[in-house]
Design brief:
Layout lengths: L6 E9 L2 E10 L4 E7 L7 H12 L2 E9 L9 E3 L1 H18 L7 H5 L5 E3 L7 H51 L2 H20 L5 H15 L2 H18 L6 H22 L3 H21 L4
Parallel strand pairs: 3-4
Antiparallel strand pairs: 1-2, 2-4, 5-6
Helix pairs in contact: 4-7, 4-9, 7-8, 8-9
Length: 295
């Protein structure tokens, strides 16, 4: 079963009379890219939380929000760190004068700096409060993983449909092959007949057969068909794995499928076969786009 990197999970609990919310969002990414916005009381536990999420979520662009929400009945709890405000203000003013920049109102910009606004409601949580917060994060992670499974099931269904369609088109290619030999033979005979008339020389049938064998070997697509069929089977088998690192492996298999389909196209000398190959490329491209979302 495959998992999607796209997901969403949320869990809530009550800590010290305030609503604590843990929310996780995820998109696709080649590596784990985790952004965490934590309540001040959890800052010293951030490394532990990150390590736990890294093990459970493996890969993706992950955004975690775990903090107490303002219910609306609470007054503003942020206070200004005056010393930090004045220090930043003076430094910016000094830099402005040094660079010869015009005067400007810096208040809004200085207030956005991290150490200027402080949450006066922040307190030291006891062990049971930290445990409640970590449990909420864990439940949000469970919900996030369940979402990933649901999205992964939809992706797997789509992949199987596209693979079935490619296999069906591969069967059509075999149908076109039956008449290829005779068409090539007739084409060569026609051109050689015209050449013989112009030069008044007889056709060397033995040499003709040798050239026919050469061209048939060059245009033979048996190996490409066999390898493509094997890649399709391996793609299906890989989707049935445990979900760990499946996305990268499916990406590699899709690349190999593309090589075989491209070779089929380069060897095709019939318009019908070329149209079939284009359809196969289109289906494979749709698979490649969605493989990027697989964990």
């Amino acid at each position: 079963m495959i998992l999607s990197m796209t997901g969403y999970g949320k869990a809530e609990t009550n800590i010290s009379g305030r609503k604590f919310v843990a929310e996780i969002k995820g998109l696709n990414s080649k590596q784990l890219d985790l952004t965490a916005r934590l309540a001040p009381e959890l800052r010293e536990h951030e490394l532990k939380i990150r390590q736990t999420l890294a093990v459970r979520l493996e890969r993706g662009k992950i955004e975690l929000r775990a903090e107490c929400e303002n219910t609306g009945s609470e007054s503003c709890t942020s206070t200004i760190n005056r010393a930090a405000f004045m220090q930043h203000w003076d430094e910016i003013e000094e830099l402005r004068k040094e660079k010869g920049l015009p005067p400007a109102d810096l208040t809004e910009h200085v207030l956005r700096l991290k150490d200027v606004l402080q949450d006066s409601s922040a307190s030291v949580w006891q062990a049971e409060e930290i445990e409640a917060a970590e449990d909420a994060i864990s439940r949000a992670t469970d919900a996030f993983t369940a979402f990933r499974k649901q999205e992964g099931a939809a992706l797997e269904k789509m992949f199987r449909e596209k693979l079935d369609a490619i296999e069906e088109l591969l069967g059509e290619v075999e149908g076109y092959e039956k008449g290829r030999v005779e068409k090539i033979r007739q084409h060569l005979l026609l051109n050689l007949g015209k050449l013989a008339e112009e030069t008044r020389n007889a056709i060397d049938l033995n040499r003709l057969e040798q050239e026919m064998i050469f061209w048939l070997e060059k245009l033979d697509i048996t190996e490409e068909k066999v390898r493509l069929a094997n890649h399709i089977r391996y793609f299906r088998e890989t989707m049935e794995g445990d979900g760990s690192g499946v996305g990268k492996k499916l990406g590699f298999i899709a690349q190999e499928m593309g090589r075989e389909i491209n070779t089929l196209g380069s060897k095709s000398n019939q318009s019908e076969m070329q149209i079939t190959v284009v359809k196969m490329k289109d289906l494979l491209e749709q698979i490649k786009e969605q493989v990027l979302n697989v964990l």
